[in-house]
Amino acid sequence: MINNGKSRKLPFDPAEALQHLRAADPKLGALIDRAGDFTLKLDPSPSPYESLLESILYQQLHGKAAATIHRRLREYFGGDPAPQLLLDTPDDPIRAAGVSGNKIKALRDLAARTLDGTVPTHVAIRKMTDDEIVERLTQVRGIGPWTVEMLLIFRMGRPDVFPVTDYGVRKGFALTFQRLPKTRPLAAADLPKPDVLLKRGKRWAPFRSVASWYLWRASAQCHAHSSTSCYRRSHTRTPAGTAQESCRSL
């Protein structure tokens, strides 16, 4: 990710969101208390085209490897290539940067759909609903709903996005709301189905992005503090007062 060190203000009031979530769901409120402050920082705000170009490059790769490929591509073009320039460039120099054949096809489709208006401009996308954005951007080859949901949360700061297919969100939900086995590690079969998340998540609207952020925190804290005897059933506090949840790790 190309980051200039700057962050933007959220387009909603986090204090209002936390007050609503605590009142709507005491169990989620308990997680909020354990996890601490809501510290989401919006990523820099490039155009939808630039955001999706980066997303395509990072798909199915370790972060460092993807960052290297992105850097090589930017070095060749002198920055992220404009859509027409990308279409006019032969495959060889793009492949030489480390971009696979399938991703080259996806990048070219992204460029073409940006030029024909399917991918909206930065100004236009801000006026669109979440559903409209998902419908438009998923027309691009290689871009699914999850990728667009991450853009909505972390680039645009939309407050009511609920990525119910996300592994970390599902794991955090299981750790927070479900009765988990105490005699074996948590298995993939223990993770809730999307309809389970959607049902409980109705009470979290219109701040399901914030709820999702805390579910990610639950999952991450469990991973950070996990051991072979890491169970959900008990809670401890570190000497510094930071809450950590004991839980079974996957």
Quick gist of this model?
This protein has helices spanning 14-24, 26-35, 48-58, 63-77, 83-88, 91-96, 101-115, 122-125, 130-137, 145-154, 167-177, 194-201, 208-224; strands at residues 235-237, 243-245.
Task: Please give a structural write-up.
This protein has helices at 14-24, 26-35, 48-58, 63-77, 83-88, 91-96, 101-115, 122-125, 130-137, 145-154, 167-177, 194-201, 208-224, and strands at 235-237, 243-245. Helix 1 (14-24) crosses helix 2. It has a two-stranded antiparallel ribbon. The model is unreliable at 1-5 and 227-250 (pLDDT under 50). The two termini are 28 Å apart. The chain folds into two domains: 14-40 and 164-245, Endonuclease Iii, domain 2 (Orthogonal Bundle), CATH 1.10.1670.40; 48-154, Hypothetical protein, domain 2 (Endonuclease III, domain 1, Orthogonal Bundle). With 250 residues, it is an all-alpha fold. Helices cover 53% and strands 2% of the residues.
Summary tags:
two-stranded antiparallel ribbon, 53% helix, Endonuclease Iii, domain 2, 250 residues, 2 domains, Endonuclease III, domain 1, mainly alpha, 2 strands, disordered N terminus, disordered C terminus
